[in-house]
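haha ok so turns out i had the wrong file open the whole time. this is the CORRECT one, sorry everyone. sequence first:
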Amino acid sequence: MTFQRIVIALLVLIVAGLGAIGYFEWKMAVQVRTMKAFVEGYVFNEAVAACERTQSSTPFKWNGGKSTSVIGLNSVKTDKYTVFASYTLVADGVYCDYDPIKRKADIGSSFLERE
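then structure:
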């Protein structure tokens, strides 16, 4: 009888532990989404201005563009110490990647032309 109680108690502890882990993971995911939205909102105006100033054979026109969309903040980890961030905007089929750290914009006319 004591063996059954011990097994039931362990199962209850495991279920409670898994529930706690799920709850903390959910809370962290909400905080990360909130932080990402804040950073994207902070960078948006700067990215639009930099993309419109960049000289290119295919001009980037966010203001007055017929079809505009925000792809958002992306990051690429090239090795375990280096992370490259970019904020991508699309206006009338022209892609603009903005680097918020270097504050530099790169324009490409199609997704395949982008590095």
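Strands lie at 68-77, 83-91, 94-99, 104-108.
again sry for the mixup
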